[in-house]
Write a structure and sequence with these properties.
Blueprint (H helix, E strand, L loop, with lengths): L12 H19 L11 E6 L5 H12 L3 E6 L11 H9 L4 E5 L3 H10 L4 E3 L7 H15 L6 E5 L4 H13 L2 E5 L8 H10 L3 E5 L2 H5 L4 E4 L11 H7 L7 H4 L7 E4 L11 H4 L6 H21 L2
Parallel strand pairs: 1-2, 1-3, 3-4, 5-6, 5-8, 6-7, 8-9
Bound molecules: phosphoric acid mono(formamide)ester and norvaline (NVA).
The site of norvaline (NVA) has 9 residues, from helix 6.
């Protein structure tokens, strides 16, 4: 596995499969009360330029449970806010800590940090990608469906960072994805081109949510306005009419469909209250699995095994 986890295109199929297996094993061991502390004496730093509940807390908890320590740095409290160059901050932090988890706007920023760092840099969400989210999401799919092969995964909503990471996973794992995004909110061609260079894509794009959801095993949605897009919310609400994941839309999916959302959810916008809280929804398991998957990622990158 590469030094950093910036995009799922950094991983090979064997990397995905070993992370899934280890995360599932760590989850089972934790439930039995077995203590795994391979990261005693190690330190994880987090630099977050955007808000977070799940990703921050699950990374911090994962590190502590593995025996390590974590330091959260909001950009505004560090010299970053006084324009210390990324390449300087990265080299200094590399002398103190064992890995750096970053959430920021422009994806080139995590690339800049990774280039100058001698420690692993992990992307905890950028405007372009959310790789760790999709790793824990596929882990949830494996737990519910016994595997990811042969499933139809439908995406309904914005062509955003979360969908981009699903497309990257599809390039490596051969996932069958059908994505419905409204006009003007589709996935950027360069995302598709980059993923296609990694592997053959079995991803179809449509503007019709019904077509995407037809016979789907998994239906995934996310907010209509991501962090950074909030000023466009009212315009987006108009553009996304008809793209809500609700009971009526799910009638076309398989009867045992799993409904997924990375959260936070906006009930009544991209998903109905009834579906979010209904029997098909696995959103709370998804949120929990972030902690187990982040343990597997930290262990693998910090120990290099
Ligand atoms: N799903 C997710 O990344 O949530 P947070 O923004 O709360 O970290
Ligand atoms: N697409 C969302 C995901 C939040 C976890 C955003 O970027 O805000």
């Amino acid at each position: 596995m590469k030094k950093d986890l910036l995009s799922l295109l950094d991983l090979e199929k064997e990397d995905f499969d070993s992370l899934f297996a280890r995360a599932i094993q760590l989850k089972k061991r934790y439930a039995k009360g077995i203590v795994d502390r391979p990261l005693v004496g190690r330190t994880m730093g987090l630099i977050f330029d955007k808000k977070s509940t799940r990703t921050r807390v699950s990374f911090e908890t994962a590190m502590v449970q593995l025996g390590g320590h974590s330091i959260y740095m909001s950009a505004k409290d560090t010299q970053i806010s006084r324009n210390e160059p990324a390449k300087d901050t990265a080299r200094v932090l590399s002398r103190y800590i064992d890995c750096l988890v970053m959430r920021t706007f422009d994806h080139t920023r995590v690339e800049e940090f990774a280039k100058a760092s001698t420690i692993p840099v992990i992307n905890a969400l950028t405007d372009s990608y959310h790789p760790c989210q999709i790793l824990s999401d596929i882990m949830t799919v494996i737990e519910c469906k016994g595997g990811y092969e042969g499933l139809k995964i439908a995406w309904v909503g914005d062509g955003n960072n979360v969908l981009n990471s699903w497309i990257n996973a599809a390039a490596v794992l051969g996932l069958d994805i059908s994505a419905a995004c409204p006009e003007g909110y589709q996935v950027k061609p360069e995302i598709i081109e980059k993923a296609s260079r990694k592997g053959k894509l079995n991803v179809t794009f449509t503007k019709d949510p019904r077509t995407a959801v037809e016979n789907a095993d998994v239906v995934y949605t996310d907010v209509w306005a991501s962090m950074g897009d909030e000023a466009e919310l009212s315009k987006r609400i108009k553009a996304f009419q008809g793209y809500q994941v609700n009971k009526e839309l799910l009638e076309g999916a398989k009867p045992d469909v799993m409904v997924m959302h990375c959260l936070p959810a906006h009930r009544g916008e991209e998903i109905s209250e009834e579906v979010l809280e209904g029997d098909s929804s696995v959103v709370w398991d998804q949120a929990e699995n972030k902690r187990h998957m982040h343990k597997a990622i930290l262990e693998r990158l910090i120990l290099g095994n």
